Amino acid sequence: LSILVIHGPNLNLLGLREPGIYGSTTLDSITRQLKETADALQVTLSSLQSNHEGVLVDTIHAALGQHQGIVINAGAYTHTSVALRDAIAGVAIPTVEVHLSNLYRRETFRHHSYIAPVAIGQISGFGADSYRLGLYALVHYLKQAQ
Ligand code: DQA
C-alpha cells in the first residue's frame, strides 16, 4: 500500500507558528515520525506541503493510480475549499482528515470542514500525533477493505 500525506497552507511554519496551539514539532520531524510508523505498518509513504490551493488539487489528481489512501491536513483550506473537497470526491481515494489542534475548541469558523463529508473520518486535537493516528486508522481501514 502506498499512502500520500498532504499538508496545506502554513504548515511549513510548524515549530515557529503559534506553538501554544500547534506545538513545537517541525514538519520535517513529523515526516520522520510518520516514516517510522509507515515502516512499522509496512506501507510506503510520500508527502507534500503546499501553500497553494491549485497545487493541492493537482496533487490529489496525480494520486490516482499511484496511492491507495490519503492523509490530509488541509490547514485553513479545510474551512474554505470546495475545490479540495471536490478533488477528494472526484478521485475517490479513501482519505483521512487530520488536524493538530482540536477544531471544536477553537473559533466557530474552524468548526465547519468542507473535507469532512468526503473523508472516512477526522482526527483532531492530538498535536503531531494526529498524523500518526490518522495514518494508523487509514491503513487499518485499507487492510480491512482488501
Ligand atoms: C489546522 C487547523 C486549521 O483551522 C488551521 O487553519 C491550520 C491548522 C490544524 O492542524 O490544527 O492551519 O488544520
From TrEMBL:
Organism's domain of life?
Bacteria
Q: Where is this site: Transition state stabilizer?
A: R17
Metabolic or biological pathway, per its Swiss-Prot or TrEMBL entry: Metabolic intermediate biosynthesis; chorismate biosynthesis; chorismate from D-erythrose 4-phosphate and phosphoenolpyruvate: step 3/7
Q: Which PROSITE patterns match?
A: DEHYDROQUINASE_II
Catalyses: 3-dehydroquinate = 3-dehydroshikimate + H2O
Q: Name one GO molecular function term.
A: 3-dehydroquinate dehydratase activity
Residues involved in substrate binding: N73, H79, D86, L100, S101, R110
Q: What is its EC number?
A: 4.2.1.10
Query: Which enzyme type, at the first EC level?
Result: lyase
Offer one Pfam family short name for this entry.
DHquinase_II
Keyword entries, A-Z: Amino-acid biosynthesis, Aromatic amino acid biosynthesis, Lyase
- What protein family does this chain belong to? Belongs to the type-II 3-dehydroquinase family.
In UniProt terms, what function does this protein have? Catalyzes a trans-dehydration via an enolate intermediate.
> What NCBIfam families does the database record attribute to this sequence?
aroQ, PRK05395.1-1, PRK05395.1-2, PRK05395.1-3, PRK05395.1-4
User: Under what name is this protein listed?
Assistant: 3-dehydroquinate dehydratase
Organism in which the protein naturally occurs: Stenomitos frigidus ULC18
Upper lineage ranks?
Bacteria, Bacillati, Cyanobacteriota, Cyanophyceae, Leptolyngbyales
Which gene is transcribed and translated to give this protein? aroQ
